[in-house]
Design a protein that fits this description.
- The chain is α/β, with parallel strands linked by helices.
- 50% of the residues lie in helices and 12% in strands.
- The strands form four sheets. It has a five-stranded parallel sheet. It has a three-stranded parallel sheet with strand order 1-2-3, with helices on both faces. A two-stranded antiparallel ribbon has the order 7-8.
- α12 crosses α14.
Amino acid sequence: MVEAQSARIGLKLLEDEDVRVVISDVKLPDANGVELVKRIKEIHSYIEVINLTAFGSIKDSVKAIKNGAFDYIMKGDDNARIIPIINSAVEKANLQYQVYKLANKVNKQYDFDAILGKSKAITDSIDMARKVARTNTTVLLLGETGTGKEIFAEAIHKESDRKNKPFIAINCSSFSTELLKSELFGYVAGAFTGALKDKKGLFEEADGGTLFLDEIGEMNLELQARLLRVLENGTFNRVGDSKISRVNARIIAATNKDLKHEAESGRFRLDLFYRLAVFTIYLPPLRERKEDIELLARHFIKEFSYKLNRKNTRADDFFLKVLTEHPWRGNVRELRNVIERVVIISNNEILTSDLLQFDFYNDIVEDNTQSLYLADIEGRYIRKALHQTNGNKTEAAKLLGIGLSTLYRKIEEYQL
């Protein structure tokens, strides 16, 4: 259970906490409780609100229910009713929450709402993807490992005219050349040892839909020639078959390599590169969108807290500051993994920086992409020292070789 002394604080808590039922006084220091019902419902429609008042009126009670309140009760007169009303509200809110989660999973799992971030770097990429989604144009997604290339590919498919057809994904680096060939193009019985019957390839499975080729830069040159043929005229041969097959599948490819450089170096077909790169979207690494780190961290905290049935888990401000200093070489995927580990090992509702592994801090200090301004470096070392000493400032000052008063001044100066 959480409490708030004002509407402003309460609304902020609803964004950070897993709340199903709100009991609100009608007279609040900064808002009217009846009007507040609408604002609460805008945050999460499944939340049930019970209005309490010492001076009720029929007009207010009607308006409260119209705004979506579960009930409107008088203090004192309705004391015997309050517990049953709360129980009913909790039951209804829990049911609505399950429906909300199911609808969210079905409707938003693969669309652009699944891509979190408000930074210009990521919103520019999303805007580009939205524009190309409703076309049949081939798309090339460029970005480091862990930047969400498959999520983007799924979102493009979900918002395309092919959304009711299959979305098939394959990682080209996970198979040998021969196995990848048979997986992509299929084979006929007798094509090779073990080919006992005809088998459809992924191109045929994705007919009418989308085929996502992840790590396309790892594809063998021979397979690249086969892929180029499909892109140019929609035809291919199954392995061991002379019959020409036709397919209508949209191709979305992705790589963490500089594909143009690979092509110019002879490791990738230049003609295939130009065919794939009709519409290129760059997915920025997390270090280029630091303003999104806190948003993503809070999202992952909620996700794993829900899975572990730890409803009130949240991060303290220093923990979030430490996250923003990290270079995140593994990008969003690394951040998600770090949060999952921290939530699992935490024994408290508040996540603190001492839960992070020590080598996490080594990355912060040693990362050569970080600012080299003395103040920035000094701030990072102070954070590391405070982590090592579990926040003990006296011990941290000794570790840093500075006076305690100097440490306090630095903490205030850097707002640590």
